[in-house]
Amino acid sequence: MVSIIIPAHEEEKYIGISIERLLNQNGVVFIGKNENPADFPAKDRTICDLTVVVTSGQDNTEGVVAKYQKVNLISGNFSGVSEARNIGADVSRGDIFLFLDADTLLNDGFIKRLDGFKDRRNFIGTSRLLPDIDTFKARIFMFCNNIAHIISRTSMALIFCHRDVYKGIGGFDEGMPAGEDLKFISIALKNGARFRYLGDISAITSMRRFETNGYIKTAIEWMGGYFFKPSEHYDVVR
């Protein structure tokens, strides 16, 4: 069983599209929080639960998520993305966790591909990413970004791992405003987890941060966080 955890803060514009893309994956059955996975035979299909953890904001993100009966909605005044992810993981029932950004769309077949890892316990990884805008600059940047993830064993927009790996790490560091994903993967690898980059499946992610802050500026900031010290402040781009 695959569990998808999405942290969301003021993501009214994106979260509905992301949920729709998930719920329409072929061969995947989503179960509600009050349904028993044992009641859904998994032959030829993947069983999945989806939890969206909404941090209170100024828009109607919570209202959009509440429209979907198959989504486990948790809302409150959380400290940040790490706490939201950890809260979502605590209520998830799958063997495989997928931590997904609210502005990222999984292409069809993604969840079934992850389900193929259910018998491999010691892994963590990410997948190929595509930009949500069709410009030469965005395509080239994301191509280089994907190569960088393979080499550096890092991620952007999504991380998947086995439940045991998550528990061994102790969750995401709630004291870090940025770079918590780097630390999460780094600890998993030090604990012996194997990094998996899936190039045969993909997801589409928003380029809004790069378009707003600049591609080169954002890339330099990320490299500084990887090689030196993560930023103590994370700019919110809506």
Share in β-strands: 25-35%
N/C terminus separation: 32 Å
CATH architecture: Alpha-Beta Complex
Class from helix and strand fractions: alpha/beta
Per CATH, the superfamily is: Spore Coat Polysaccharide Biosynthesis Protein SpsA, Chain A
Silhouette: globular
Task: Provide a count of the helices.
Answer: 9
Q: Please identify the oligomeric state.
A: single chain
Number of strands: 9
Describe this structure in words.
It is built from nine helices and nine strands. It is of the alpha/beta class and 238 residues long. It has a single domain, classed as Spore Coat Polysaccharide Biosynthesis Protein SpsA, Chain A (Alpha-Beta Complex). Strands 1, 2, 3, 4, 5, 6, 7, 8 and 9 form a nine-stranded mixed β-sheet that branches. α2 (61-66) links the parallel β3 and β4. The longest helix has 17 residues, at 136-152. The model has no long low-confidence stretch (mean pLDDT 92).
Concise account of the structure shown:
37% of the residues lie in helices and 25% in strands.
Walk me through the topology.
Elements: E1 2-8, H1 12-23, E2 28-30, E3 46-55, H2 61-66, E4 71-76, H3 81-91, E5 96-100, E6 104-106, H4 110-115, E7 123-131, H5 136-152, E8 158-162, H6 163-169, H7 180-190, E9 194-205, H8 208-213, H9 215-227
Parallel strand pairs: 1-3, 1-5, 2-3, 3-4, 7-9
Antiparallel strand pairs: 5-8, 6-9, 7-8
